[in-house]
Design goal:
Blueprint lengths: L1 E4 L2 H6 L7 E4 L14 H15 L7 H5 L1 H8 L7 E4 L4 H13 L7 E4 L14 H9 L2 E2 L2 H15 L3 H10 L7 H11 L8 H13 L4 H11 L7 H16 L1
Parallel strand pairs: 1-2, 1-3, 3-4
Antiparallel strand pairs: 4-5
Helix pairs in contact: 5-7, 7-8, 8-9, 10-11, 10-12
Length: 248
Amino acid sequence: MLHVLNGDSLASSFPASLRGEIAVARECLVDGPVQADSIEELWVIRDKYLSKNYDGVTEGEYFKSVVPEFEKILTASQETQVYLWFENDLFCQVNLWFVMNLLKKHRGSVYLVSPTTDLIEGFGGMNQLQLEQAYRDAKLLTANEKHILSHMWELYERPDVSEAITLSKQVIPELPFLYPAVEAWKDSIPHGEYLGKPKEALKEIAAQLNTDDFGKIFRAFHIKHAIYGYGDLQVKRLWEELKEEVKK
């Protein structure tokens, strides 16, 4: 059994009662370049991007802390039951799509574990008993559902948001969480003078609160636009970019 957890926060509160190996997806694939001709090239691209854009991340660190976790997924045996612990926001969904793509050739059972809280709290708002129950209530993914989630990564990497919208609408009965996340992706894409919804939302929040205090702005963004699931690091980068763009 392999539990794939979306981030170290969940890993730190993961119930010890649940047996199996753990792989932590230490990525934010929603942020930065993802187009690559091979998985090895993607590692290099992500290592360079994250070390350049995130304070405290050194070049090469990706290969020590991120790649080995993904390799656990790539090398899982066909008999391994895989449990994917991912939330419904865009941040988590993009990581889920990528993990499902890594599992493309996996023929064993794959389960999706979802939080019973809202988008704002996610797994972080659940206690040990609730996490154990979420595991018991995990959704066994059909071959078609696995294919769709894996294909979503290919559409994201391209990127082909219009095809992703069409596909996610078609599977609302089976995968209802998919369409809202893809809509959020579509809305985040800049066009013309429109900066994309996240930056436009930050502008609006700063004006409404009449402040440039990032802490206050982030809290408001996190609550109002929880569908994005961005952490403070992603929002901070967008906020800094926005301030630079305003100066021009």
